[in-house]
Amino acid sequence: MITLIRQELYKLFMRKKTFVVLIGLILLTGFITYGFKSNAENMKKYDTPEFQIENIESNIIYLETEKNNIPQDIESDEVKTSEYLEDLDREINQLESEKALIMSTIGEDIDWRDTLDQKIKQQEKMILEDGANVNASELAQMNLQLDELQYLRDNQIEPQEYHDFNGFIFINQLISTLGQVFLFIGIAVFAADMVSGECTPPTLKLLLAQPVSRGKVILSKFIAIVIASVSLIILVEILAFIFVGMIYGFGDSSYPSIVGTAYQFDTSIFLENGGHPLTMVPNSGEIIPVWQYTIKLFLIQGLFIVTITSFVFMISTLVKSSMVSMGTSVVSLIAATIIFQFSALQRLGKYFFTSYSSLDGLITGNIAMYYNNPSMTGSLGIIVNVGWIILCYLVAHTYFIKKDFLI
């Protein structure tokens, strides 16, 4: 059995297609890296005091102009006109205050610990003052945000800005990005001819003539394509993580990440469509260090890659043409992703693995918010993926050992 797997792996890695897919993945990773870094640089620019002051001044000029353009529906009403002008003056004064505050910080070296302490006090004050006026879900989110700030303070970790860029931020963004479309297309191109490709030319005839059971033949092919798919994709990601980390730093591996958030319908609120909004289940989220979050993300991605590979492998077993296998796989995967976005089919979508392509959503629990379905959780996503792996392999195995191959 091991010999068969080794032979299949050798055939896989000697194909030109494998190198084409590998080069394509490397180039795509490079473009994504450049895009992430460029976006971080732009966000950093927008976050500078100079840019913020310029933006505030533009808003003040706009509001001053609006004072001379009183809407026609209130122009004849002195009371409404006065209220309108007072609102504009109030906004202008607020902007002037923000501008003065920002200008006062220019040139000052503010300790991030002091800023963090201030945020903690503001969050505690908000919970104390507004806690009684919000629902349980909003209060739970406020407490979770406070826990995150306390975690940073207790562990002496400097808070990250939204424009920061390091190895851990990059790899988590990369995995989430690749989990949408590339994995479908890339794996379909890579694995579509695993079985069907041996029908023309008829190398499958020689393989079946060997003193090895068909069950072992199909199992060895399955194990080989799974190993190749997972190793190629994750290896490129790990190398990219190391590359980015060495240049821009890896960041603090203990940085907090919130995972395991659960949601439920708030039956006390009715929406226009007759449904209920989703609200966070109190005390459902937990904080883990980013290194644990990243490992979980890699494991979830590995499972998702195996599921896609199993589906493509099944199609490759059922048809004889590599082109038909590839086309059917790509169309089926993308169509399923689109179809189950419709509200009428979302309840069925939770049983199809393409609905769980948001890998970060599986870990954080936010996938329930994406589909407005509290039953879509990380645990269900794992069960659905494992179920599809088993189903796809059993279909491929049964068909392969019973089918008469006329080659």
TrEMBL record:
Q: Which residues form a coiled coil?
A: 78-105
Where are the bilayer-spanning segments? 18-36, 169-192, 222-248, 297-318, 324-344, 377-401
Cellular component aspect of the GO annotation? plasma membrane
Q: Which UniProt keywords apply?
A: Coiled coil, Membrane, Transmembrane, Transmembrane helix
Has UniProt tagged this entry with the keyword Cell membrane? no
Superkingdom assignment? Bacteria
Annotated GO MF terms: ABC-type transporter activity
Check the record and name the PANTHER family matching this protein: INTEGRAL MEMBRANE PROTEIN-RELATED, MEMBRANE PROTEIN
Q: Tell me what this protein is called.
A: ABC transporter permease subunit
